[in-house]
Amino acid sequence: SSELTQDPAVSVALGQTVRITCQGDSLRSYYASWYQQKPGQAPVLLIYAKNNRPSGVPDRFSVSASGDTASLTITGAQAEDEADYYCNSRDSSGNQLVFGGGTKLSVL
Amino acid sequence: QVTLRESGPALVKPTQTLTLTCTFSGFSLNTNNMCVSWIRQPPGKALEWLARVDWDDDKYYSASLKTRLTISKDTSKNQVVLTMTNMDPMDTATYYCARTRRGYSFGFLFDFWGQGSLVTVSS
Predict the structure, then answer these.
(1) By the 8 A CB rule, do A5 and A100 touch?
(2) What does residue B80 show for φ and ψ, rounded to 5 degrees?
(3) pLDDT at B44
(4) What would the pLDDT profile of B39-98 be if each residue is shown by its tens digit?
(5) DSSP state string for B88-120
C-alpha cells in the first residue's frame, strides 16, 4: 500500500479550477513532485517543490503544501489536462521514494 | 538531449529472473546528485517506485521488494541494470527507467523517463 494517498478520481468543468491532493506523514518533512500521465504515454514531470515547473509546463499548474498534505492546483483547466496525476516523495524513513495511488482527472 | 531506453524480455516465465537494462545518454552518472530509478506500472494501475542507484553507487530499494531486486550501474556504458528474481504474474507491468535528480531545494525528482518496457509474466 502507498504511504501517499490521493483521491482516485476528480472532475472539473472546462475553464474552472481544481485541486488534487496528496496526503502522507512524510510530506511534513519532504517535498513532493508531481507527474502527469496521459493514456499510452510515459509520465512527465509537471511541477515540484515550491512551484518549480520544467520548461513548457503552463503556469496554470501550481502547488502548495500544508502539514501532511501537498496539493496540485490547475487554474482554468483545459481539455488537454485530462490525465492521471501522481505525486511522489520520500517515505517516512527517508530512504525510499514512493508514489501516491494517482488521481484520474476528467475535464467536463 | 537526455534520453533513456529500456530493454529486456517482453515475456518471462514464473519463477524466472528478469533482467532489464536502461541505456541512457545526455548525462553522466558520475555527476554529483545524479541518479537513475526504476519504476513500474501494472496495466491500469498506479506507478510504483522500485529502486535507485546514485552517482556515488549508493543503492536504494522498495521495502516491499528489496529481497528480489538488484540494481547496478556501468558508467562506462551509460547503463543501469535491474534484476528481479522469482517473477510472478503479479509482476506483469510496464517497467520504466527515469533520470532522478537529488537536490537540497527539491528533494528527488524524475525529470526524464524512458518510454517503458512491457514485461508479461506467464507460463
Answers:
(1) yes
(2) -130, 130
(3) 96
(4) 999 999 999 999 999 999 999 999 999 999 999 999 999 999 999 999 999 999 999 999
(5) -GGG-EEEEEEEEEEETTTEEEEEEE---EEEE
DSSP β-ladder status, B18-25 and B11-12: unpaired
- Judged by CB atoms closer than 8 Å, whether chains meet at B115 and A42 is answered as yes
* The C-alpha cell that represents B52 in the structure block: 535507485
- Report d(CA B113, CA B62) in Å as an integer: 19
Kindly state the average pLDDT of the residues A87-99.
Answer: 91
Asked if B39 is an interface residue toward chain A (Cβ–Cβ < 8 A), one would say: yes
How is B28-92 classified by DSSP, letter by letter? -TTSTTEEEEEEEE-TTS--EEEEEEETTS-EEE-TTTTTTEEEEEETTTTEEEEEE-S--GGG-
CA distance A24 to chain B (A): 16
A13 touches chain B (CB under 8 A): no
B116 contacts in A (CB within 8 Å)?
42
Amino acid at A90: R
Which set of grid coordinates corresponds to residue B24?
A: 541512457
Question: Pairing state of beta strands B34-41 and B93-103?
Answer: antiparallel
**How many residues would you count in chain A?**
108
In whole angstroms, give the CA distance from residue A51 to residue B111: 15
Q: Mean pLDDT score of chain B, rounded to an integer?
A: 97
Q: Is B108 in CB contact (< 8 Å) with chain A? A: yes
Contact B113 A91 (CB under 8 A): no
